[in-house]
Amino acid sequence: GIKGLVFCKVPNLADGRSGLHYEQFRIVRRPYKAAICTLIPACPEGKVTDLTTGKFTAAMHPDLSYDGKRIIFAARTANKPTDEWNIYDMNLDGTDLRQITRGIGDCLDPCYLPDGKILFSCNKPGFRDEYDRDKAMLLHTCKPDGSELQQITFNLSSDMASIVMNDGRILFTSWQHHAEHVATNGIFAFCT
């Protein structure tokens, strides 16, 4: 009964290694030239359509709207260290592209919320991790036009990789660096 799939295509590096580097459930190197694609119908003979190459240097973290008509995702327009990842959404066929966030830091892991708002992780300036090494990724919400930005988690490390559960609660991964009662190097915890 599945009509199609939306996925992120990540090219391998020149030496054949994966273009996506994960370390302890976090992305260390965000993939250059990653693209949001569809496969319709959802079968080996289906047609793969690249929706973002040519519009972005890289795009990842797709999520479908509740009615299945729009895709929200994180994307970057250039491959410079100063270029931020922002949140965009578009129709399932790649039309009606809209930018949701701008100028607030790297915005990743977006998803639609049942109340019509958008949820995402962001390393907004002014919030650094407990060792002042990096900006902390914290959860934020906003309206689909980017207005009413609200930070909803306050962690000394980072909160990311969120999903909306069937009952409407948010499940996310939280880096608990000083969770030494569990592990000396800290842990990733699932939180709601």
Write up what this structure looks like.
- The structure is a single chain.
- With 192 residues, the protein is mainly β.
- The chain contains no helices and 16 strands.
- The protein has strands spanning 5-9, 21-23, 26-29, 35-40, 47-50, 58-64, 70-76, 86-91, 98-99, 107-112, 118-122, 138-142, 150-151, 159-164, 170-176, 187-191.
- A hairpin with a 2-residue loop joins β2 and β3 (26-29).
Which SSEs are present, and which pair or pack?
Layout: E1 5-9, E2 21-23, E3 26-29, E4 35-40, E5 47-50, E6 58-64, E7 70-76, E8 86-91, E9 98-99, E10 107-112, E11 118-122, E12 138-142, E13 150-151, E14 159-164, E15 170-176, E16 187-191
Antiparallel strand pairs: 1-4, 2-3, 4-5, 6-7, 7-8, 8-9, 10-11, 11-12, 12-13, 14-15, 15-16
Order of helices and strands: EEEEEEEEEEEEEEEE
Give the N-terminus to C-terminus distance in angstroms: 30 Å
Topology, number of strands: 16
Mean pLDDT: 84
The proportion of residues forming helix, as a percent range, comes to under 10%
Largest sheet: 4 strands, antiparallel
Number of helices, counting only DSSP H or I runs of 4 residues or more: 0
Using only CA atoms, what is the Rg? 17 Å
- Low confidence ranges: 23-28
Structural class comes to mainly beta
**Major beta sheet, strand line-up:** 6-7-8-9
Shape: globular
Please state roughly what percent of the residues sit in beta strands, choosing from under 5%, 5-15%, 15-25%, 25-35%, 35-45% or over 45%.
35-45%
